[in-house]
Amino acid sequence: MIRSVLIANRGEIAVRVIRTLREMGKRCIAVFSEADAGAPHAALADEAHPIGPPAPRESYLRIDRLIEVALEAGCDAVHPGYGFLSENADFAEACRQAGLAFIGPSPESIRAIGHKLNARTLLQGKVPTVPGQFCDIGHAPDVHELEREFGFPFLIKAASGGGGRGMRVVRTAEGFARALSEARSEAGAAFGDPTVFVEKYVENPRHVEIQLLGDTHGNVVWLGERECSIQRRHQKLVEETPSPAVDAALRRAMGEAAVRAAKAVGYHSAGTVEFLVDRDREFYFLEVNTRLQVEHPVTEMVTGLDLVREQVRVAEGEPLSFRQEDVAPRGHAIECRICAEDPHQRFMPSTGEIAGYELPGGPFVRIDHALSVGGKVGLFYDSMLAKLIVWAADREAALDRMARALREFRIVGVRTTIPLSVAIMGHPEFRAGRYDTGFLDRHAGELLRENGNVELAALLAAALEYEQKRRGAPLPAAHGNHASSGWTAAARLEGLRKGP
Ligand code: ADP
Ligand code: ADP
Ligand code: MG
């Protein structure tokens, strides 16, 4: 029985994990960097401990410090969230050695299947993989040999990669040397491992992934798929389930392939097997994420399962409480990641201070966030501020609900991806379910024009509201559950400062 858990993370995922732990009656111990003193996750926990300066390397990535705090605070388990140390086998190992239950898979599983190259070696013949080749660092591969094997285009990828970094598409022999050295140095800087490999670049595929759950008694089930093809820089922005491109036969084939992959390493806890699906509806293994995924809430909405609760139960040694036949997803769920980025500036992170915000509400709307008025949005951490998730009986109703909720969502102080998401929800190709990982690039022009219109409309509404207030005219009642007195004025100032 786990009684007290250290949450080795920050932001919305730390908040989300704490909420389930509290429902289960567990004590929650948060950690925070100097940039996060008083942050929502620290305020919500039963105890919060400082772990160092803002830079992740000096705080959220400090294995020694995290273990020390966990032991001092009397914890018996650690939840790693996603990102940071969540896929770090050394961290899982250090927890085990300190007598702390790691709420995730074993260090052996992480090593065997969390690493992109180890995984494809292990899964050769078990699961369809994109044709690939190991390309050791120091060894200068012959581009003509690669061309003979794959044909152009091919892709250079970081073996320890994540978050879409360390990837380069190669379309000509001339472009190869430069792409290789860029990929290596980006991978070295981002992941401390410059190892890269090469695989065939699938043109405009769909990204479809399978959610898995396994226990320590050898049971593994799959919980349906998530379609995550709306991406910028190979990073997801919108996710939905079920996928408009997947029928029952393909779903089952992918689900069973994912279970085979997990069983090959005796996998337990939550995990995700990512696949690419090409135009002929062939699917190829991409990678396994050995952790909770950012987009896990869409699966929760259609299955009724709380994946963090299941992770905790598995870590307590309980067998899964249901079987594959019991999994019966219902309706449609969609998530928009709300990021502090400017789509007009090639998604550059937008920094500043949250001057105010209003959250959407209404039936079947879920918001996972860690926003706070006065909170600083800097460059030390991921740009994602919140996730908006909605459920409805069918896809069309879910898209309408999402568009409505997005229009209610206001964040003042930084630029966000909210207006772009509104534009995506209204795009005819997206509404028809005809999209792939090239969608955002292909439709950038129209989407950004619409993005500008939505932003302008919001600014005009704020200006009108201000004008009415100045004249002493009665205002329509504020909506949303976080309407703060200062926010309208802040919106105005922000609008004036930035211009439409
Ligand atoms: P998901 O499929 O869950 O969206 P992502 O690849 O987008 O997976 O990564 C989830 C989060 O973890 C993002 O916030 C991303 O920036 C972060 N992340 C991914 N890989 C790493 C890594 N190796 N080191 C640090 N952060 C990472
Ligand atoms: P990360 O660890 O950064 O999440 P992934 O291997 O999961 O890396 O790839 C991230 C995204 O990059 C995919 O969702 C897809 O859009 C694109 N991608 C990766 N590999 C390929 C490939 N071989 N062909 C085409 N697109 C790819
Ligand atoms: Mg991935």
Amino- and carboxy-terminal Cα gap: 55 Å
- Quick one: overall form? globular
Number of strands: 23
Largest sheet: 8 strands, antiparallel
Q: Which runs of at least 5 residues are low in confidence (pLDDT < 50)?
A: 477-486, 496-500
The CATH level-2 architecture of the largest domain is identified as 2-Layer Sandwich
Helix content: 25-40%
Any idea what the CATH superfamily of the largest domain is called? ATP-grasp fold, B domain
Rounded to the nearest angstrom, the radius of gyration is 23 Å
User: In the CATH hierarchy, what is the class of the largest domain?
Assistant: Alpha Beta
The figure for the number of domains is 3
Describe the structure.
- This protein has about 500 residues and is α+β, with helices and mostly antiparallel strands.
- The protein folds into three domains: about 100 residues, Rossmann fold, CATH 3.40.50; about 70 residues, ATP-grasp fold, A domain (Dna Ligase, domain 1, 2-Layer Sandwich), CATH 3.30.1490; about 250 residues, D-amino Acid Aminotransferase, Chain A, domain 1.
- Helices cover about 35% and strands about 25% of the residues.
- The protein is built from 17 helices and 23 strands.
- The protein has an eight-stranded antiparallel beta sheet with strand order 14-13-10-11-12-15-22-20. A five-stranded parallel beta sheet has the order 3-2-1-4-5. A four-stranded antiparallel beta sheet has the order 6-9-7-8.
- Strand 10 and strand 11 form a beta hairpin.
- Helix 12 runs antiparallel to helix 13, helix 13 packs across helix 16 and helix 16 crosses helix 17.
- It is globular and about 75 Å long.
- The C terminus is likely disordered.
- It binds adenosine-5'-diphosphate (2 copies) and magnesium ion.
- One adenosine-5'-diphosphate binds next to strand 12.
